[in-house]
Design goal:
mainly alpha
Length: 135
């Protein structure tokens, strides 16, 4: 059994797809490194109509996921740098800053996707049961 098959949360998270139908894109621009559009999401899924802007401040919870992810990356970075430089502050800080800046767009987006997946379940019939929304 594949972990990355459709209908799993992992599929939605890795592919940045709507957690309900797993076909609609969660971000307007697929490239996370286009920083002007980093946080731009459609209001509703273009395929199933799922509401991505559930309430004001909904994505504040994704900051906790982002915090945990960056903490884990910082620890891993330190474990890689430590054998070469020990506790020297400059190499540790520089490597962590470089890693954080490099991974920031991916961490930002994946935190939002994980947070949305906590609240939305996969529905195989989501496309058939699409709710037409007024625009």
């Amino acid at each position: 059994m594949s972990l990355l098959k459709k209908s799993t949360k992992l599929y939605s998270i890795i592919k940045f797809k709507c957690p309900r139908c797993q076909e609609g894109d969660l971000f307007l621009v697929k490239n996370p490194y286009k920083l002007r559009t980093l946080d731009k999401m459609p209001h509703y899924c273009g395929v199933c109509g799922e509401d991505f802007q559930r309430e004001v401040g909904f994505y504040y919870g994704s900051m906790m996921i982002s915090h945990a992810t960056t903490t884990l990356l910082a620890i891993l970075d330190h474990l890689i740098i430590y054998p070469f430089y020990g506790w020297d502050a400059l190499p540790n800080i520089l490597s962590i800053v470089i890693v954080m800046f490099g991974f920031f767009p991916i961490i930002f987006r994946s935190s939002r996707v994980i947070w949305l997946n906590v609240f939305v379940k996969y529905d195989a019939d989501a496309i058939k049961n699409r709710i037409i929304r007024d625009k």
